What does this fold into?
Amino acid sequence: MKNAINWFEIPVNDYERAKKFYSEVLGETITDHHMEDKNIKYGIFPYEMESHKVGGAIVEMEGVNPSADGSTVYLNGGDDLAGPLSRVESAGGTVIMPKTDIDENGFIAQFIDTEGNRVALHSMG
It folds into this structure.
């Protein structure tokens, strides 16, 4: 096993609001991949599909509920997570842990997204 994680899903209540939030914070496009026959709104974060890198999505569907409790997903903060973290509040989220040095493992920060999920960022710079 190369990675303990191979896919993640972040539950959302308002797909378009969450898509706008994550696109603004990460400066990346969330790609729609809805499953209309199952009434599922699905948006995929950029990832290297061909090389089987870890990927994930936002999902709006019955039975999935945003939460600030439970597992924490760490999104790639790029070369310096200060950039995406600086856009969290203007995009509608709340920073709950500022950029924090974790020694040789880089830096982390946490925020609450527009849906009420606790999500984190990681970078080496």
Summary: The CA atoms of residues 11 and 55 lie 15 Å apart.
